[in-house]
Amino acid sequence: MLNFSSVLTLLVLFFVSPNVSAIDKVFPGNAKDVDIIIKSSISDNDDTICKSLVQTQGYACEEHKVTTKDGYILSVQRIPVGRSGKTASKPPVLLQHGLLVDAAAWLLNTPDESLGFILADNGFDVWLANTRGTKYSRGHTSLSSNDWAYWEWSWDELVQYDLSALVQYVQYTTGQKLHYVGHSLGTLIALAAFSEQGKLINMFKSAALLSPIAHLNQIPSQLTKEAAQLHIAEELYSLGYRQFPPGWDVLGPILKKICNEPGTNCSELMTALTGPNCCINSSRAGELLKHEPQPTATKNIIHLSQMIRTGTIAMYDYGSEDENKEHYGQSAPPAYNMKNIPKELPLFLGYGGQDMLADPNDVKALLNDLKDHDNGELVEVYSEEYAHADFVLGVNASKVVYDPMISFFDIHSS
């Protein structure tokens, strides 16, 4: 039986920010293509990730801004030294968060438990990405985040523009190739970019993919599958809601509809969505609420829903042959072929037996795509007890995942 008060509490905690409301419906603006701006912009604003989460722990921190070719201004934090104060002796590492969070997710536990701090203390030059649309990456060269056009993107644009701009910026600033860490959606955009084998691939030393998302057709989260099958995101988009999530006045009735579907249990929402996370410190919930959740584009949710329904890893489907031909020159959206990922690219995959978003069977399908990888260039770390959020917020993730990942980076840092 649905315990609606607990659903409401968890939904507010993990998905609906107190500051999120129904989107103003305004006419879209016109985005302009601009070159990547290769310069840093150090912010004096007190409300920054550096000042609220990094410097308070005794670490040096820099705030940078990176502008993508389609005009989005992204916030990036850099932790150039560890607590010892010694200059980083190892290559840069770019951390890319997943869906509905921002870079704060890598910093919310104690310094001995948070990956951002652990990497800095191990001598790496740490860079923290914030996806377009999140709190600190709301800028644009010509659009306001209240414009419909600002939210006209899916993870295709994160591959084509955001990741490209961030990797080039870090490589240009440091003069070094970099390691990459992605969680959830952060793994999908990297895998898609690797499969394209453009110039970007030569800027990476290696990549660590935590809770890797690629194949989604075996996803066991009933709540997530029902939302995809009911075309919830498409319905929101048709009603003019370009930012996700919309306000509770919109999302509440939708959640009721999903939770009333046969076989769907919403009494424990986070478990229903991500799996039974074993190792998250519940006392950090208050700190989590200060920084998360973060919005994304409704079109991004539609794109992920298409993958769940079709079992394909492809570009955004515009819904008709004519529209797809207009965008892609063909009637169906082009596929991202995971088998095209270079076999010599060192990859570290961490996945969990309880994960209901990056299901072990889907991860195994990805591993099958990568089976021709060079010997020693593909490393797996599997934890039977881990679910989706444990890889970022687990209090024992350092021992279970991060220590072997750092060893992997050290091997490939020369």
TrEMBL record:
Gene3D superfamilies given in the database record: alpha/beta hydrolase (3.40.50.1820)
Signal peptide interval: 1-22
Catalytic residues as annotated in Swiss-Prot or TrEMBL: S184, D355, H388
Domain Partial AB-hydrolase lipase stretches: 52-109
Keywords associated with the record: Hydrolase, Lipid degradation, Lipid metabolism, Signal
Pfam families, per database record: Abhydro_lipase
Record's protein name: Lipase
Lineage: Eukaryota, Viridiplantae, Streptophyta, Embryophyta, Tracheophyta
